[in-house]
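Ticket #4471: complex job returned nothing on first submit. Input attached below:
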Amino acid sequence: MLAMNKIKILGTTVIIIAATIITSSCNDKRSTGWEFAPNMYEHLAYDPDQQNGNFKDGKTAQVPPAGTVPVGFISFDYPNTKDGYDKASIEYKNTIASTPQNLADGELLFARFCSPCHGATGQGDGEVTKHGFPAPPSYSTGQSSRGGAMKDLTDGKIYHSITYGVNAMGSYASQLDPQERMKVTLYVHHLQTL
Amino acid sequence: MRSFSLIFKQFSRSVLLIAGFAFLGFSAYAQGDAAKGEALYKAKCSACHKIDIRVVGPALGQIVTAETDDKWLAKWVQNSQGLIAAKDPKALKIFNEYNQAGMTAFAELSDGDVADIMAYTRTTWKTMQAVPAPGTVAGQAAGTAAGQAAATGPSNLVVFSMIGIIVLAFIIILVLNKVIARLERLLLKNKGLFAEEAATQKAPVDRLATVKKLAKNKKLVFFVLLCGTLAFCSWGWVTMWNTNIHQGYQPVQPIKFAHDLHAGAMKIDCQYCHSGAYKSKNASIPSLNVCMNCHKTIDRALNSKTASTEIQKIYDALGYDPQTQKYDSTKARPVQWVRIHNLPDFVYFNHSQHVVAGKQKCQTCHGQIQEMKEVYQYSPLTMKWCVQCHKRTKVDFKGNAYYTNLEQVHKLLGEHKPVSVAVMGGIECSKCHY
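Support reply: We reran it on our side without changes. The output follows.
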């Protein structure tokens, strides 16, 4: 009777262990599964977002050296201060034409990068503000925190705000290149009239 | 006499007037209506201020409770730039401390309105201070512990130790069984009853006999072997085909970024963060400054009393201190996201080509990302999958500058049927392998 017990116990242990190994190995979502010739996948060339021991900070995507300017880059030489903001307001003018195509591009970029807070029509009623994010003022009826009405914002003021950010708004310089910022500025001018 | 009464009259009038004003001012300070203040606060102040933590402007609770000069506060609210221009020392100090960010002038708020707001801020700050201390600490500790446990998930260590414990338990049971058997035998020996031992030995022999009997049945043996071979072959077939296919791969990421919250509930466009997708080969993982566009202001879930541990990870990675709002680049260390979608190096794939010229939605290849709490690889990313889509997808020429010339040629040839990507060379080897 005891010997029978032994066989039963051993048998069930083996079955349970086998079952766990089989089920866990087939369904492990945390692993990439079997790989053949993995060196084709983990290649020698570095991906931009890959760890890289050749640099001090361990990143492959390095920031360009200070003072580097991309070819065709339109610089905006106004510092992130109140004076820079006021100076840009007077001196800076958009060099992009107000064509339907540019306006359409601006609308698309505005929808993508600005509308989460500013709302599709620029009323400051974006989806994020409904979930507790501080709402920005409306372009057509609101007051600017730096004085004056939002509908009177000039090219330079809008471009300055996109480049450096203001109050709760961050800088969009990394997401929008100068051309795109101009297109967004064009579209914001359209929203000011709503 | 007359002159005295006149003087007295004038005097009493002025005293009354002053008293009246003083009372008004006093009542405005002492009885500023907190309920009215709350409505005003939410309409005018909450965009830049919070009571307990610094956001764009200072945390109001402490600063307003410390500042008792209500008239000065009213002046500041109505026109802070004026105070700064007049070189008011207190105003200049705050202005310089907060990176010279000007506060909107609220000229439309009367002294009474400002007093209401201040009353609301002070009472709220008082109740906030009265309640939290021990609760928040315990809550935070519990939160972090739970967060860490959930972040690691059932790791290999846990699984193996569980198996180890089970095996150990069985070994213990076996040993105990042996001990029991020995004891029983001793008991039987003492009683002088060996006869039953033979019976116990007979039982396993009987069982083995049935197995032997079955083994002699050749048809059955053949059937069992056939089943085994078939199962092994089909398992092998499926496994071989799925070698190098990472479909369903869902690694644990260093920060539990929830796509269902950001892209789903908040409806933020995919390309807000993955802004490389429309202008580059790589869709790009956003740099942390993109996170900080919002999380400079948002450090916790809506209606949560404690700061989120996941958002804290962004601050840690940047070396950012939410109290002083300063970055310390020496403490910064990059977040090590785990790559999910990985095409081998011998395949060329370009995101912008598919998103802009091809007009494909992100969801076509990546699945319903806006519903995923944790991202997994939705598509197999095999060549068969690529080719199938290139054969089935019709090219949209409309307003598509990339295909202008091709469309003209197509028309010249007199073709009017819609064209698939494959027809335009989308399945030629050198298109992706070079």
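Chain A has a mean pLDDT of 86. Closing as resolved unless it happens again.
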